[in-house]
Amino acid sequence: MTQPLPLSQLLCFALYSASHAVQASYKPLLDRMGLTYPQFLVLTLLWETDDQPMSRLAQALQLESNTLTPMLKRMESAGFLTRSRDAQDERQVRLRLTEKGLGLRAEATEIPACFLAQSGLDPTTIRSLTDEIATLRDRLRAAQT
Amino acid sequence: MTQPLPLSQLLCFALYSASHAVQASYKPLLDRMGLTYPQFLVLTLLWETDDQPMSRLAQALQLESNTLTPMLKRMESAGFLTRSRDAQDERQVRLRLTEKGLGLRAEATEIPACFLAQSGLDPTTIRSLTDEIATLRDRLRAAQT
DNA sequence: TAAATGTAAATCGTGCGCGATTAAATCGCA
DNA sequence: TGCGATTTAATCGCGCACGATTTACATTTA
């Protein structure tokens, strides 16, 4: 048996604290647009593909209706998107960007670049780090059977 | 200008989703002990050094009193630790492990090892990944002036 | 020593995340 | 065709996170 690691050397804490630090660094930029960080993630998906069912966002973000439903309602009231039942399958809720939601795209997609600058790391390092973390995440999800 | 990246290639989302995946993989083990994930982080710090002021935990976790106060009260009611005002400086709240809190140490410090096994990554990779993520976090915090 | 300054927790409100449950629509199959 | 099983959202409760403010105590300084 090895000695227990201190918090500062735990991968779980590195991820936890880094994720919070990233959200904090995004915050001033998102505030100007009236977005929270998870809402920014939702819009990022809709900027890639507009008019998606909620179930697809849930899949991509690994979030469930108990998180997404109230969040999307707030985004609808704020005027970023519309929610409407699919005519073919009334169980599904389809999400569509409004003009306001579309209008934020150019400004918002600059944020990851600002973030990269703030981090002081070069793009290649950022890319490989992203891949390694995504691989870890996918393996954990797969093990979660 | 480069093209905007899809969500799946954003470092911020990799961190966000991996952090959630790690917490999900810890959950069944923590549930058995009656702990939440942030509570496990608090205990990890107290297992390293018992009898700390709340301000030191706040510094280590980068959390503030608005998060920690209610959380520590819950942990106190659950019997994991005690909270008491420091006699020398009545502004401070000192945290001490109870027998129950101490008793979880051996079992809980095994969790990161289980996690490592689940991840399917070798210890060396885990360590360098942890370091890289911590470096990124620290640079972002430093830029956050 | 009294007033100004600084520091540590606590409090309040809002928005996630998620377990558990419910409701409604669709699908599958006898 | 009809009825059980499945799928999709919605709802409810609780525990973080965090901005903003307040309270209590300590320290500095006039």
UniProtKB/TrEMBL annotation, chains A, B:
Residues 8-145 form the HTH marR-type domain. It is found in: Cytoplasm. One of its GO terms (molecular function) is DNA-binding transcription factor activity. InterPro entries: HTH_MarR-typ, MarR/SlyA-like, Transc_reg_Sar_Rot_HTH, WH-like_DNA-bd_sf, WH_DNA-bd_sf. One of its GO terms (biological process) is response to stress. It holds the Pfam family Staph_reg_Sar_Rot. GO terms for cellular component: cytoplasm. Keywords: Cytoplasm, DNA-binding, Transcription, Transcription regulation. This is DNA-binding MarR family transcriptional regulator.
